[in-house]
Amino acid sequence: IKLLELNEGVDVEVDERLERTRADFDVIDHGSGAANAGKEFLIAVRIETTARNFIGKTAVESGLRALPGLFLVSIERTRSSAGTSNGGDTGVPADRTTVIDPSEPLEANDVMWYAGGASAIASLRRIPGLAPYSSDQVEKLEVSSHDRRLIQAVVAKTGDLVGKSIRDVKFRTRFNAVVIAVHREGARVHSRIGDVVLHPGDVLLLDAGPDFRQSAGAQSGFALISVLDDSTPPRLSMLIPSLLCALAMIALYTAGVMELFTAAILAAAVMIASGTMTQQEARAAVKWDVLVCIAGAFGVSKAMQNSGVAEEIAKKLVYLGQVTGTGEVG
Predict the structure, then answer these.
(1) pLDDT value at position 233?
(2) pLDDT digits (tens, 9 = 90+) for 293-302
(3) How many Cβ atoms from other residues are within 10 Å of residue 42's Cβ?
(4) Would you say the C-alpha torsion 34, 37, 41, 43 has a positive or negative sign?
(5) Partners of 98 in the beta sheet?
(6) Which of the chain's termini has less CB crowding within 10 Å, N or C?
(7) 90-125 pLDDT tens trace
(8) Burial of 71 by CB count in 10 Å (0-12 exposed, 13-18 middle, 19+ buried)?
(9) Contact status, residue 152 vs residue 226, Cβ threshold 8 Å
């Protein structure tokens, strides 16, 4: 339909059925597409039991169907039913996974499959109420949440990973990293991560620490490794301590107990000591170029005052205002 409208100049009559159908397609405009969108990964996320903003709402109502850079492929739900064995009913509950319609209300532990680039998937991790499907493996990582990053790793053609499933190679134990998505040229890898059999050239999206790139074990199995910037998972549990530190800083300064600079240093020290932020994050938050620029501006302004340049500029501006009638001398 889109090709007919754009290339053939055909006017397509839009009705209610067509609008419902269009909602299930991702329209790609001219000049965009896979060539410009980068590598596409397929990732599964689980709705947590505490996600009150999602449970009971449809994917459209909760905003989960229109996330930037991501396309909702499917929603899976696991239901319990009576198990059978040799045609007989054993009465033992068995799990049965079904694909539900996006118009159905979401429930806790529903699995949502998204397709998108690595940067979009990194932003997906910052949404409260959504957890990686392999969150149990992520929690077993011997890496602090402060140091975890998303890493792209290309499987080497001659490595010992080729032809083996991620579960068989014991990926987390061997590399101290968890595979959360797989990109394979020409195909979407829509299966459980542990069951994926690795092929040469597969791009793995990993949740790992900063030392993964330098580790000798990682270098032997991968041809290329790159770290995604600004991909640290959010630490929502530290939100309240951060707010309390900020409020305490303002209160101490307002009450006249200490200067603002001293209160800010104290608040930063408390945040570092409590684990709200790391020392590296504190150092990175200091914008030395801005501080140097401000300090230089003070020096330049003092020099202009001492040399009389500032006074001459002020006189010229006052004279210009009088001539043009745009202001009065204060």
Answers:
(1) 66
(2) 998 998 898 8
(3) 22
(4) negative
(5) 77
(6) C
(7) 554 556 778 888 888 998 888 888 888 888 888 887
(8) middle
(9) yes
Residue type, 129: G
Q: How far apart are CA 299 and CA 291, in angstroms?
A: 13
Element (H, E) at 202: none
Closest among 191, 62, 66, 71 to 133, alpha carbons compared: 191
Cα gap 87→89, rounded to integer Å? 7
DSSP sequence for 215-281: -HHHHHHEEEEEEPTT-PPP-GGGHHHHHHHHHHHHHHHHTTSS-HHHHHHHHHHHHHHHTSS-HHH
Pairing state between β 70-85 and 149-155: unpaired
Check if the beta carbon of residue 218 is closer than 8 Å to that of residue 212.
yes
Of 204, 162, 161, 213, the C-alpha closest to 181 is 204
Q: What are the two backbone dihedrals, phi and then psi, of residue 18, each rounded to the nearest 5 degrees? A: -65, -40
Query: Of all helices (H) and strands (E), which one includes residue 232?
Result: none
- Mean pLDDT (the chain) is 77
Q: Which residues of 86-102 are buried (b: 16+ CB within 10 A; e: fewer)?
A: eeeeeeeeeeeeeebeb
In this prediction the pTM is: 0.59
Beta bridge partners of 81: 94
Backbone Cα Rg of the chain: 29
What does the block give as tokens for 292? Answer: 């140097």
Identity of the residue numbered 89: D
DSSP, collapsed to helix, strand or coil, labels residue 104 as coil
Q: Which of 101, 109, 172, 185 is nearest to 140 (CA)?
A: 172
